[in-house]
Amino acid sequence: MKKFINDPGDVVAQALRGLAAAHPELRVDPENQLVVRADAPVRGKVGIVSGGGSGHEPLHGGFVGPGMLDAACAGEVFTSPVPDAILAATRAVDGGAGVLHIVKNYTGDVLNFEMAAELAGDDDITVETVLVDDDVAVQDSTWTAGRRGTGATVIVEKVTGALAEERASLKDVAAIGRTVNERSGSFAVALTAATTPAAGRPGFDLPDDEMEVGVGIHGEPGRRRAPLAPAADVAALMVDAILEAKPATGTAIVLLNGLGGTPLLELYLLYGEVAALLESRDVRIGRSLVGNYVTSLDMAGASLTICHADDEILRLWDAWVRTPGLRRGV
Amino acid sequence: MKKFINDPGDVVAQALRGLAAAHPELRVDPENQLVVRADAPVRGKVGIVSGGGSGHEPLHGGFVGPGMLDAACAGEVFTSPVPDAILAATRAVDGGAGVLHIVKNYTGDVLNFEMAAELAGDDDITVETVLVDDDVAVQDSTWTAGRRGTGATVIVEKVTGALAEERASLKDVAAIGRTVNERSGSFAVALTAATTPAAGRPGFDLPDDEMEVGVGIHGEPGRRRAPLAPAADVAALMVDAILEAKPATGTAIVLLNGLGGTPLLELYLLYGEVAALLESRDVRIGRSLVGNYVTSLDMAGASLTICHADDEILRLWDAWVRTPGLRRGV
């Protein structure tokens, strides 16, 4: 295993110390593995909390800041955060208007966020939850009942964060988050497996001439193994899978996301193929984002997310945001 | 070789097609491998051109836009752009106030930018050049007489770009670029070698238990091979090497840069070690940036850049910028 770490058992807390050093505008608690925007709770604003296993950076801690998340809970690598941490985050961001939990659909995350929401209810904090399950590759998976939550999480976090800044109600913020999720589909292809610090070797075996089609962000199996294919073919199978599950309507926000080990040069090349295909399928790309946003450690691979947006979603996507991972307008 | 490409001989132009699709606010010419900001030339503003071999994305094309570069020339992977392309870029951004060339110190880049500057002179375009040679690891290298240009290029491009937006003279814009370079030192460590599409296999052999200390961004040899070490030790050897060559003065801009294949989780962990060390060495970190900015395709590794800034450099670093790779304030 070749990694910039000190101790495989203490990676997440040490990385959070680095996040704290790099971003004094955030309140980072490495011990409880929380990242909170410095001015939380914001009085009268819906607080937004997300979180999940680490190893997907910049998700979620890199999206904490004005215009997006109020707090993120970081679990150990590929492991859900504990209910106590989620409860602490919920309390830290409750400004009296309720708290939204954005939860990727993995069994551990769902259970722990549910438990934290119940405990927050005992504190008279109203919690609504948006479950993100955009990955159209498989119906159930290793750690999932139903579809997995992946790239659309970034769009849900951005759009709900923008609406919350406008002091919309918890009901409305949750509603637009659910709309974004319903209108989004994602599909990923892996060329290599990720190596977690704890395991010290790749999470699955993938021959040199094969790719995993429909892989999950923890290396969960996809639909099939297939021979390595040109980027144009990879783009086609991603686009086909997504548009079959989520047929085109309106203008799309398109996220071509690197899984961690794939260079930007390849991501742009792949995006060019995706864009040409979408044009031929009468999908209008209204906004796009190319880069590493929801990663799987050092996995070479990419995911495509298509969100069929309406004017309101586009407006909120365009709104100002200031986080380590996404910034515009400020 | 596992990459998202179609044809190993046509990677850069196809990636530029993707960049064009993702960034309609840029004028991208995939055939001549140019990226130009849409409103160029800006009348009365110094035009800023950089460029170099591809494979280091987001450098340079990802830094084209208001507040930073006016144009970038992309060579083939790890290959200098040709003089004709640099000349075309220089002409495209000449708004009557002269053009600055920002050139990383590699023999091919230096020669081709020199030739383009001469040809531009024949067109009565005044060209000044800032040579970036911040990599303190080795004095001469595979493709270099003198030190190599690496991470400081981002800071030079940002700071000169901001000053040019204020309509400063070519002389002043060049001068601050040179000052940033003189005040900056960089040092890189590789855990794996990059694989170019043309070669199809890693550019050098690196045993599973070793790292290349002082590596170049094309995989050029560094100072030595060393046994894999904890992140704290890697941070120490980077900081020591840089501060020995560029002793601390003033407030630092610190860039902890991923070389392409290293996850953000590790980069933040390594940054935490760097920040603690700099504090113990009485270096005040004024600004920081952690992520993939000057990469070497899929190389696992990281580089540290320390720029001992003055108030003017900090002010220009903080100024608004709108590029695919760096954005703030707009």
TrEMBL record, chains A, B:
EC number annotated for this UniProt entry: 2.7.1.-
Keywords: Kinase, Transferase
InterPro entries reported in the protein's UniProt record: DhaK_1 (IPR012736), DhaK_dom (IPR004006), Dihydroxyacetone_Kinase (IPR050861)
PROSITE patterns in UniProt: DHAK
Single biological process term from Gene Ontology: glycerol catabolic process
Annotated DhaK domain residues: 7-326
GO molecular function, one term: glycerone kinase activity
A Pfam match: Dak1
Gene3D superfamilies attached to this UniProt entry: Dihydroxyacetone kinase, domain 1, Dihydroxyacetone kinase, domain 2
GO cellular component: cytosol
Name used for this protein in its record: Dihydroxyacetone kinase-like protein
Species this protein is from: Catenuloplanes atrovinosus
Lineage: Bacteria, Bacillati, Actinomycetota, Actinomycetes, Micromonosporales
